[in-house]
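Exercise 7. Given the encoded structure of a 783-residue chain, write a plausible sequence.
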């Protein structure tokens, strides 16, 4: 049945009448879908799960539909029943769908290999169609459209080639600039940003020289670059953006009190610094005191109700730049400044298709032509019934695509940075002629852009995965429980997200502040530069990251500086993999959660409820422990989710094998279990079983009993667990290799990647000594 339907749709004789129109419409919609998925898909979905397979499917369907449709549109002879109209419509359709095919990849950087042979031949074929038998009224807009398309493809290739050469050169230039001592003053102030000379823009306009013996590329900021201005004025740094009068109407204290305008430039400067992690360039400023002060004293400001709004605002915009660097054409488009030429070509294309929209109105809407004889030797008639309507619809799609493409670039964070930098340049140059007018116009544009684009891409929601309830056969959703238990990665398709609450933010960022405050001084290391990190200092930083158990369960004596021994031992101290440790503590935390609910008279089924959305209890032990409970359980479930995605320092294949084995252990212990209240009793038997006690599930059950017996006060227990999970998540974020974070830049973003940025800028580079840029084997199909 389905085969006969496909054959009917494929025929193009008089019996099916609308076959050509159908294929033109279908091809247009497929090309539009490919453009939509390729351009905005990576911003909202993770291509490792959805976007990449959909793009491959659309690429295949586009190939066959385009080839077939172009093959239909070649009448061999004219007939007196309207063949001229059919030929005109064929030329219009051919040019439009060929142009859409060649520009459907706008979401990714244009490279030479992406101009495939099919695109080239299709463009030449459409030009040949225009060369023969084209009416003058149609020839003008069609040739104009084809010419603009050719110019745009040529410009794409030129700009891509230049950007491809400039990006690694500028990254190396920024890296060498940070190797010098003049990038940050020792007494730099995070409050006013004075002394922070991080590069925002203008490094490509500086004179350079290579200096031995390290052959570093250094900028000469003293020579004259452009006539009438020095290179120093062309280089925009963070301190220059902040160094404005308080009365300034855009960047002054009164106009930009919360720093939203200036923070976009700070995010862009930090993006350029973080980009070095993907090129294996040294992070020379990691040990500088001003580096960690920038994070602890400026970014980690606790806002109203513990929002930490500035830290998340800066990192989400920085992540949007990193996302665009790897998964969009923005770095290519903005490599030479604001994309005026590209937008001009888009405007010409839009004007040309509008002209064509008017011109096709004179073509008869129906007609018949005789097609060339096929393999059977019989001539077939091509009949058009709604040609003008189809043409207008295709033109509307092309016009919308052009407008959306222009909007993607104009209304972006990159445009905001360009506007602010242009404003700062105007202030530095202090032009008298037209200076005030230009600054006023720039100020208005900046305010409009910041009102339209208020934030980055992250919605501050994190995915939760509870291993105990996922493996429970008798849960409220048994089908989903079995599905999750067999394929834990399916959680990426059916996630359970919760809003990042103030309790969670406070636990995370207070732990981060405590880590930063305890960073050892690098003075006296084996380098001529006292702020250059040494191997011994890096080991101390790694040890500080791994002290999350001590920070949570060891109490320091303020009187003599001694420490009292913890009431429990770290059950995971001898385990090698981070996934093992996550699952042991996750099981223990889940069992403690069930016990607390039982003691408070709450149903144990609430262990899988959305805690942040629940109303806090007003009395009892649960009320005192509630803020810590929300933080600990939320972070525990999030770390378990990271294990399901292999977004941990372990090898991805190892993480998934361990997770599968532990799920098997828990499912085996919960056979016949019908309610969440039975979980604690079933798993508690593993803690007392000598052989089962050595498994991950048994170790988690035994650790839960030790925690409950050691800490009678619920508030103290959950406060320590909240500090533990916050410290563990910081350790996982800093120690996960950059290549893994790169894969997860797609989509809405992950909390662990935001933490990775903040820790990197504070000097915590993790313990990954090799393979920083190598893909994990589990991520090979997701890149």
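Solution.
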């Amino acid at each position: 049945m389905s085969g006969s339907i496909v054959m009917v749709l494929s025929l193009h004789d008089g019996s099916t009448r609308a076959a050509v129109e159908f294929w033109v419409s279908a091809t247009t919609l497929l090309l539009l879908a490919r453009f939509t998925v390729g351009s905005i898909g990576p911003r909202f979905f993770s291509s490792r799960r959805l976007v990449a397979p959909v793009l491959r499917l659309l690429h295949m369907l586009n190939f066959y539909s385009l080839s077939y449709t172009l093959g239909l549109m070649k009448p061999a002879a004219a007939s007196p029943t309207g063949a001229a109209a059919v030929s005109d419509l064929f030329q219009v359709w051919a040019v439009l769908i060929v142009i859409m095919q060649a520009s459907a990849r706008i979401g990714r950087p244009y490279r030479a290999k992406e101009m495939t042979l099919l695109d080239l031949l299709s463009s030449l074929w459409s030009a040949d169609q225009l060369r023969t038998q084209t009416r003058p009224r149609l020839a003008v807009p069609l040739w104009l459209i084809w010419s603009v398309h050719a110019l745009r493809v040529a410009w794409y290739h030129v700009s891509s080639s230049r950007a491809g050469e400039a990006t690694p050169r500028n990254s190396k230039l920024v890296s060498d600039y940070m190797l010098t001592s003049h990038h940050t003053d020792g007494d730099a102030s995070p409050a006013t940003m004075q002394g922070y000379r991080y590069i925002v823009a203008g490094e490509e306009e500086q004179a350079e020289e290579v200096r031995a013996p390290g052959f570093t590329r250094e900028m000469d900021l003293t020579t004259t670059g452009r006539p009438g201005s020095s290179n120093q004025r062309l280089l925009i740094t963070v301190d220059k953006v902040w160094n404005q009068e308080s009365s300034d109407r855009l960047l002054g204290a009164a106009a930009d009190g919360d720093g939203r305008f200036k923070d976009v430039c700070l995010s862009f400067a930090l993006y350029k610094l973080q980009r070095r992690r993907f090129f294996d360039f040294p992070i020379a400023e990691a040990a500088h005191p001003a580096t960690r002060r920038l994070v602890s004293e400026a970014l980690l400001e606790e806002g109203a109700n513990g929002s930490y709004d500035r830290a998340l605002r800066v990192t989400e915009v920085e992540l949007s730049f990193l996302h665009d660097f790897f998964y969009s054409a923005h770095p290519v488009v903005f490599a030479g400044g604001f994309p005026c030429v590209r937008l001009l070509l888009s405007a010409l294309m839009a004007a040309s298709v509008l002209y064509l929209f008017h011109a096709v109105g004179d073509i008869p809407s129906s007609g018949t032509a005789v097609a060339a004889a096929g393999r059977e030797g019989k001539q077939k008639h091509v009949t058009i019934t709604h040609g003008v309507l189809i043409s207008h619809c295709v033109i509307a799609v092309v016009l919308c695509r052009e407008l959306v493409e222009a909007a993607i670039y104009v209304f972006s964070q990159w445009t905001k940075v360009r506007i602010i930098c242009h404003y700062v340049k105007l202030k530095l140059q202090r032009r008298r002629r037209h200076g005030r007018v230009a600054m006023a116009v720039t100020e208005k544009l900046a305010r409009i852009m910041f009102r339209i684009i208020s934030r980055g891409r992250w919605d501050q929601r994190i995915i939760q995965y509870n291993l105990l309830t996922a493996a429970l056969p008798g849960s409220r959703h048994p089908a989903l429980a079995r599905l999750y238990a067999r394929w834990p990665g399916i959680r990426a398709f059916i996630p359970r997200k919760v809003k990042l609450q103030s309790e969670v933010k406070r636990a995370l960022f207070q732990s981060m502040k405590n880590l930063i405050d305890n960073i050892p001084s690098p003075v006296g290391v084996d380098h001529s530069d006292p702020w250059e990190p040494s191997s011994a200092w890096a080991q101390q930083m790694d040890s500080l990251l791994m002290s999350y158990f001590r920070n949570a369960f060891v109490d320091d004596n303020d009187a003599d500086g001694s420490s009292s021994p913890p009431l429990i031992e770290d059950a995971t101290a001898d385990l090698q993999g981070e996934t093992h440790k996550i699952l042991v503590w996750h099981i223990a935390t889940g069992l403690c959660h069930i016990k607390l609910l039982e003691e408070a008279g709450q149903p144990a089924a609430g262990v899988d409820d959305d805690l942040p959305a629940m109303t806090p209890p007003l009395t009892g032990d649960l009320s005192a422990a509630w803020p810590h409970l929300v933080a600990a359980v939320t972070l525990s479930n999030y770390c378990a989710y990271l294990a399901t995605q292999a977004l941990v320092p372990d090898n991805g294949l190892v993480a998934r094998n361990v997770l599968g084995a532990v799920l098997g252990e828990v499912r085996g212990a919960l056979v016949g279990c019908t309610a969440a209240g039975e979980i604690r009793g079933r798993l508690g038997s593993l803690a007392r079983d000598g052989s089962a006690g050595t498994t991950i599930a048994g170790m988690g059950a035994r650790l839960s009993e030790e925690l409950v017996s050691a800490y009678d006060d619920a508030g103290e227990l959950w406060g320590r667990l909240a500090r533990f999970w916050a410290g563990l998540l910081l350790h996982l974020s800093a120690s996960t290799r950059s290549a893994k974070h790169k894969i997860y830049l797609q989509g809405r973003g992950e909390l662990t990647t935001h933490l990775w940025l903040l820790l990197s800028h504070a000097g915590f580079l993790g313990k990954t000594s090799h393979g920083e840029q190598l893909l994990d084997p589990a991520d090979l199909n997701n890149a």
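Remark. Confidence is low (pLDDT under 50) at residues 1-18, 76-81, 109-113, 524-528. Students should compare their own answers with the one above.
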